[in-house]
Each structure stands twice: as structure tokens, then as C-alpha cells.
Amino acid sequence: MAYDLELAERVAQLLKGRKRITQRQMFGGVCFLLNGHMCCGVESRRLMVRVGPVQYKAALGKRHARPMDFTGRPLNGFVFVMPEGLRSHAALKGWVDLGVRYAASLPPKTGRA
Asked: Which residues lie below 8 Å from residue 59, measured CB to CB, with a gap of 6+?
């Protein structure tokens, strides 16, 4: 899988110590899940963030955020954050925290391996 290993490690470090976080290969990269729900991930050099439908427009209004689109049809509630918007620790943490907050608002998935 061709994704930015350094960015993935930075995300993993931000999530280190949180309970119920798992990691899975998805979307041609690596995704981080909370209670079975994707909160964020790394694809190529971009951060994927699940912001949810309510925060979607606001997230797209931020610099370096783009619709998450693999097939010509954007996924509502998911954004890509371009590498330029991830250079600082604070910027990356803000995006990761946004994804974690949304995933934490969802009921835990059950019965999944």
C-alpha cells in the first residue's frame, strides 16, 4: 500500500493511549477506528477525516480540506485534508480530534471481528 507512513505514525501517536482504537487497511491506506467506526486515516499523502454530516460544510470551508472522493461521487461527512494543512502538530491534532469526536458520538458496532 502506498501511503505516507510518517503521517500514519503521527496519527497513531496522537491516538496512542485512547481506548477502543483499532487500525485497519482500507481505501488503499490505513484507517483508525473508534468502537468500529472510522474516525480518520491516511491515503497517499492525505488525511481522511470522518466529520459527519452536520460538520461537513464547515470542515470543507477550512483551508486544505477537500471532499473525499474516490469514484467521482464525494462521500458525505468525509473530507480529505491535503498535506499542506497537516504540517504542524496542532493542525493534525485538530483534524484527528474532530474525527474522534464524531466517531465517539456513534453507538459502538457489535458482532464484528
From this structure: 49, 51, 65, 79, 98
Instruction: Average the pLDDT over each of 9-18, 21-30, 57-66 and give the range with the smallest value.
Output: 21-30
> In this structure, are strands 21-26 and 29-34 parallel, antiparallel, or unpaired?
antiparallel
pLDDT tens digit sequence for 87-99: 999 999 999 999 9
What is the CATH classification number for the domain harbouring 81?
A: 3.90.1150.30
With respect to residue 109, please indicate whether it lies within any of the assigned structural domains.
no
Range of the domain at 57: 5-104
SS3 22: strand
Report if pTM > 0.90: yes
**Three-state SS string across 15-52, please?**
HCCCCCEEEEEECCEEEEEECCEEEEEEEECEEEEECC
